[in-house]
Amino acid sequence: MSLAFGTRYPCDDRLGLDRPAEPCSPRERPWVLTVSILGSSLAFIEGSVVGLALPSIQGALGVDSSAVQWVANLYLLVLGAFLLIGGAAGDRFGLRRVFIAGTTTFAFGALAAGLASGLGWLLLFRAVQGLGAAALVPVSLALLSRHFDKEARGRAIGTWAGASALTTAAGPVLGGWLVDAFGWQGVFLMVPPVALPIVLLALWRVPDDTPSTDAPPDYLGGLLLAGAIALLVLAMLRLPSVEGWLFLGGCGGLAVGFLHRQRRVDHPMVPLGLMQSRTFTGANGVTLLLYWALGGALYFLPFNLIQVQGYSTLEAGLAVLPMTLLMGFGSTMAGDLIRRFPPRHVLTVGPLTAGVGFALLALPGAESRYALHWLPGILLMSLGMTISVAPLTTLVMNSVSDEQAGTASGINNTAARLAGVLAISLLTAVAVPTFAATLADRLDAAGVPADVREALIEQAPRLAEVTIPPEAGPVAREELRSVVETSYVATFRILMLLCAATAGAAAAAGWLTLAPRSSPAPSEDGQPARR
């Protein structure tokens, strides 16, 4: 799901579908379906509520934007890096066991994060949550593939998707209420009371399953991938300094090591033969760019709504409710688009529509009306994503053989999640100096005394959470608060235009790399299959 508001990822509903079925009895199926829905919903809701809590976390802990971004980034980084290993672990050790272990780890990380006394501890336990989610997310759906036969599986997955849409829509509202009522800690402390009955229900009613393989997960490959992504993120934050270039060089070294291992290991995380499919590579390129734009927009949007527009956290959650409803319920109908129209056209129009929505989000000022200024951009952004997500899923699955469906969906899902990490890091690196320069110019134009000016500029990394120094005086404080808010709005506009441009690049990638019609799926050796 999404970075901030629980957005549905492409291929979320295809993780684990390459696993052999072990149909359970009709009496047990409703319980398996219930556990799968509850487990995946727990991770989906937590993704949405934490995004809404970030402005509150920044204010409560007194940290700047470069630090608070890691509350989202570290979780996404660990989840994305170990998602494929989590699915492989389910095959190796049994789906029920890994599901219970993942849910327990996720809940423990949430409990510890809610009790954390500082940013360092909070980040540590967010990483623990990421590890738990990396097992919970792929395995929760794989349970349906394992315990429902092919005839009953479609209906079960449809029920799972509908329930996920409802819980996703409820996430922003629940998150807003939790933060307003209990502070940012509430979004973490609500997890264990929900996770405990899920674990007990899984132990009681979900049949134990036989591991489908003796091959151990590629732990070394997962660590190499995680290290490469981590160094890439750090490089973005430090470039063009020498330290940044060193991080980038280290990233390249680990990436080469990862690719080398994928060529040599018996059970690679990423079969390199898949990359020979232009359709598969193009669809993943569209995913990376489009979800980069979405991740960046949804990360910075609540800061604007809460810190500048004056929304409560609950109101900010309600503000994006139309997005989750449209994407949740519209994706099912959008799945038919790729059968009615050429994939190239669908995955050009969808990202372009989303790009227009991102651009519209750049228009509101410091005092804006929701229905007039914010809702049009949110709806167009949501419409573009709705047009794109289900066709991306179909296109990725059609570009590979049935035996590679689980691996392909895992790769696509990982690309979508890591896109958010890269977007947040790069846009934060753009936002801080842009805000500092804009704030300095406006303070100079307002003739602010030098001591007050320097005190404000020093806080620029906190963006809109800048504290007005007491020596400014009560009248000047109101004027300075206005300067800070308009400076952030100017910065936010640049960020949204960058997101719009990236969505436009996704549209260009779709048009240039995708054939007018789907290409044949490759066989297991990576060569195109014959139809």
Which descriptors would you attach to this protein?
531 residues, mainly alpha, 75% helix, globular
Structure report:
With 531 residues, the protein is an all-alpha fold. The chain is built from 18 helices and no strands. It has helices at 29-61, 65-93, 95-114, 119-147, 150-182, 186-189, 191-205, 219-238, 242-264, 278-308, 313-319, 321-334, 337-340, 343-360, 370-398, 405-446, 450-458, 474-513. The relative contact order is 0.14. Residues 518-531 have low confidence and may be disordered.
How many β-strands, per DSSP? 0
**Strand residue percentage:** under 5%
- Overall shape: it is globular
Largest sheet: none
Instruction: State the end-to-end distance.
Output: 34 Å
Briefly note the structural class of the backbone: mainly alpha
| DSSP helix fraction | over 70%
User: pLDDT under 50 segments (min length 5)?
Assistant: 518-531
Rg over CA atoms, rounded to whole Å, is 23 Å
What value does the average pLDDT take?
80
Element pattern in H and E? HHHHHHHHHHHHHHHHHH
- The helix count comes to 18
